[in-house]
Amino acid sequence: MTDWDIKKLRILRTLADRGTVTATAEALHMTPSAVSQQLTNLSRQLGVVLLEAQGRGVRLTDAAHLVLRHAEAVFAQLERAGAELAGYRAGETGQVRVGAFSTAVPALVVPAVAALRRTHPGVEVRVREAEAAESYELLSAGAVDLAVSLAAHAPTARDPRFTRIPLLADPLDVALPPDHRLAAAPGLRLADLSAEPWIYGGSGPWSEITQAACEAAGFVPEQAHSAAGWTAILALVEAGMGVALIPRMAVGRATGVTVRPLPHDRPTRHVIAATRRGGDTAPAVSRVLDALREAAGPGGC
Fold first, then answer.
1. DSSP β-bridge partners for residue 95
2. Are the beta carbons of 205 and 130 closer than 8 angstroms?
3. Disulfide: which of 66, 67, 79, 101 matches 278 by Cβ 3.0-4.6 Å?
4. How many other CB atoms are found less than 10 A from the CB of residue 202?
């Protein structure tokens, strides 16, 4: 009978996610030599070659991919077993670690935690700010139990590792300097701002969202300034140095600028939650998901 070692299979899955032995070792707080030794032992136990040399690194063999396809079902079943056991053992108590992107923390996570403290004080939520790519790495490695991210930057719905839960369709508004010539213009459209200097990040989700929204409106935005944080972006807009798209979730921070909705273009970003496959059935995680849906309000998905 083949010896399936769960710990070693998790190391193999992390290697598939991270791509190198060094990155795998860092994610799992191991040494590279320990990772290599564990995977060599797993290969011996399963009786197949799992890794092949590729330049200075390694690549997974077809046998390794076959093993991982079956291992994902095992991991999902173990998550369900752990969730049922947690429900039996703890009932309404438990700790849930949440990774969320910066805008979602004050807009969704904090209100959800405040509501849970009133209704289910035994559920403890620990929050970790993390952008989309990092949150899924943390989720896969078991460092968080639930990730709040943008749908456009999440793994596909067919990814066997995760369960995706829609939370919110978040409209995008445009922030203008208070004295801008279009600050009070009726029926404002994105195309009306095609000749304006734009402010957005040099890379990452918000850069892609801004460019995609403008391109859908028929133009490529001229990036005059690059900034990633809302404090910096809104300060530049207030100073008259350009315009910027801003999610409705972040409008509360937009003091000193004019914020206009875009009802004709309706640019939107979709916010989702995700758990490891099967993990959403854990009672405490389910409570947090319910609270996040409630915090999303009528605009929730």
1. 124
2. no
3. 79
4. 11
CB proximity list for 298: less than 8 A, separation 6 or greater:
none
∠ CA 104-110-113, rounded to 5°? 130
Give all strands (DSSP E) within 153-203, no chain letters. Answer: 162-176, 197-199
> What would the pLDDT profile of 96-108 be if each residue is shown by its tens digit?
999 999 889 999 9
Tell me the pairing of strands 146-150 and 258-260: unpaired
Q: Rounded CA gap, 227 and 136, in Å?
A: 24
The per-residue pLDDT for range 133-152, each reduced to its tens digit, is 789 999 998 999 999 999 88
CA dihedral 211, 152, 128, 32 (to 10 degrees): -100
Q: Output the pTM of the full model.
A: 0.72
How far apart (Å, rounded) are the C-alpha atoms in residues 93 and 100? Answer: 22
Q: How far apart are CA 163 and CA 203, in angstroms?
A: 27
DSSP letters spanning 88-148: HHHTT-EEEEEEE-TTHIIIIIHHHHHHHHHH-TTEEEEEEE--HHHHHHHHHHTS-SEEE
Q: Say how far apart CA 196 and CA 107 lie, in whole Å.
A: 29
Q: Which pLDDT value is given to residue 228? A: 82
User: Phi and psi dihedrals of 246, rounded to 5?
Assistant: -140, 130
Here the contacts of 10-14 (C-beta below 8 Å, separation 24 or greater) are: 10/75, 11/35, 11/38, 11/39, 11/42, 12/39, 12/42, 12/50, 12/60, 12/64, 12/67, 12/68, 12/71, 13/68, 13/71, 13/72, 13/75, 13/140, 13/161, 14/140, 14/141
Q: Tell me: the pLDDT tens digits for 256-274? A: 899 999 999 999 999 999 9
Cα 25 to Cα 29, 57, 144, 289, 295: the distances in Å are 6, 14, 18, 31, 37
